[in-house]
Amino acid sequence: MRERDEKYAAFTAPLIPNIDKNTIIGVRSPALRKIAKELKNDENIAAFLKELPHKYYEENQLHASFICRISQDIDVVFDYIDEFLPYVDNWAVCDGLVAGLKIFKKYPEKVYAKVKEYLKSDDDYTVRFGVVTLLAYYLDENFDASIIDTLINIKTDEYYINMALAWYYSFGLIKQYDIFVGIFERKILPRFVHNKSIQKAIESYRISGDRKDYLRSLKI
Questions:
Q1: Distance separating alpha carbons of residues 78 and 80, to the nearest angstrom
Q2: Which of 68, 112, 94 is nearest to 161 (CA)?
């Protein structure tokens, strides 16, 4: 492939250690955008979206980006997401999909209902997708504290779910401190999630020094 960059592939592989490095071609983002433009129209994109599973990491990146622009009908977008998530096998594609779904901002209630479904899934990256969606779109004006009970009940040894939860709780401490600090005072989270959440929150410049000192005292 003319856009292949073997050095970039070697750089990318350690960042996504749970997938076969031979499935990483090493195509940089500008080149991926160029390839995406070559498909040109929605008919070609729709055909590509039906070609699951893909072989290469970059194909999954393209798939995620196409979902984000194939339709302004949220129910159509949900259909494409539901078809794709069982084939997502790494954090980068999962989180990239969330980041690109700006349409989610237009339908907070519908998306929130779907997120609750994702959190109940037996598929690791479907659960992560739900958690990262909450992190990206539901910690500000659309925040609903009732979702915390659902998240607390997620018990797993899956690293990429636990890391997503830790990022979520850390941003909860940043944006909704008075609500989230009680979780850490009660010490009800798994040890890894508890301590990693505090670590990430303390690293933020958006938390005061006094709060950082208190959070340090809550580590397990």
A1: 5
A2: 94
Ordered DSSP codes for 59-76: HHHHHHHHHTTS-S-HHH
Q: What is residue 69's predicted lDDT score, i.e. its pLDDT?
A: 84
DSSP assignment string, 87-118:
G--SHHHHHHHHHH-GGGGG-HHHHHHHHHHH
User: pTM higher than 0.90, yes or no?
Assistant: yes
- The answer to whether 176 touches 207, Cβ cutoff 8 Å, is no
Q: Which positions of the chain have pLDDT values less than 70?
A: 1-2, 40
CB 215 within 8 A of CB 187: no
Tokens at 148, concatenated: 């915390």
Residue-wise pLDDT tens digits, 90-100: 999 999 999 99
Q: Is the peptide bond before 86 cis (omega within 30 degrees of 0)?
A: no
| Distance separating alpha carbons of residues 195 and 52, to the nearest angstrom | 38
Per the listing, tokens 């959440």 go with 197
Kindly report the backbone phi and psi dihedral angles of residue 32, in degrees, each rounded to the nearest multiple of 5, phi listed first.
Answer: -65, -40
Cβ–Cβ under 8 Å, residues 131 and 119: yes
pLDDT value for 184: 98
| Domain positions in the chain | 1-100, 145-220
- From CA 109, how far away is CA 23, in angstroms rounded? 37
pLDDT digits (tens, 9 = 90+) for 80-126: 999 999 999 999 999 999 999 999 999 999 999 999 999 999 999 99
